[in-house]
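Thread: quick sanity check before group meeting

JM: Hey all, I'm pulling together slides for Thursday and realized we never actually wrote out the predicted structure for the chain we discussed last week. Dropping the sequence here so it's in one place. If anyone has concerns about the input, flag it before I start.
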Amino acid sequence: MEVLITGGAGFLGSKLAHQLLRRGTLIGKDGQPQNITRIVLFDQVAAQGFSDPRITSVTGDVSDPAAIAAILTPATQSVFHLAAVVSGEAESDFDLGMRINLDATRFLLEQARKNGNRPRFVFTSSVAVFGGDLPAKVLDTTPATPQGSYGAQKAMCELMVTDYTRKGFVDGRSLRLPTVSVRPGKANKAASSFASGVIREPLNGVVSVCPVPPETRMWVLSPRSTVHNLIHAHELDAAAFGHSGAVNLCGLSITVKEMVDAMTRVAGPEPAKLIEWKEDPAVMKLVRTWPGDFVTTRAENMGFVQDQRYDDVVQAYREDDLQKP
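JM (edit): ok, ran it. Output follows.
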């Protein structure tokens, strides 16, 4: 079995690839486990940290149809489409967001259609498809009402994945991811970047400037649980997704203050002293439109997992990704 991961050099793409290498198998078209013989990691930069011969790192532009044709071939049986321009960047550069988030997804789907082999297609959407006047807890039946370009682009891609699935071109499933926390590495241009920065930077002895007030509520999921759910989505039979291929993933509803309190319980009081609270109107404009709590009965019934305590999320970051002196 050959697998393609777009955004494969990113932290989620890399973690997913390592987990797939450890598993060694994925469900094939016949519903039976098949050995993974090749994983193509496609990104604008080369993937690092792999020595396994099953890994092929390819660089290129995900919005270039020629590049897509070279990496998504009739031999590709599974696609994990993670590549995207993040929320803040999609809002500030509309053309870039449309090209990378919308056009690239259509090029991938269209190449799969040309290949004619109906690969499984796991698309990472976002809870940013919701916004505006929302109930206290977003339901599985709550309609998508994005209030930013990133959310709108993700919602449009969901519809494309569903329609290409209906037509038999792919076997698609879209996951509306919570904010993933704690992300390792440097801060990015996502409006939600602070949800990792308030933990990551202090634990690394660096000052973190939080652009939202402490009472800001977030819907979050750890990297460990996110990778588990990506693979679980692939392994589910298409019938489990029904007429709508998009599912709101389980998460943890928590305020930024509660996140910092969890860090203090795990790592002591010193890291929290490195947090500076300084509101950023541009970030606040986006974040305040996002839902902070969900009822995820459908995802739970489908077997998706969530984190029970943010203390465990902080500890997992310390074990998996904290930079050691």
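AS: nice. The mean pLDDT is 95. The chain is about 40% helix and 20% strand.
JM: adding both to the slides.
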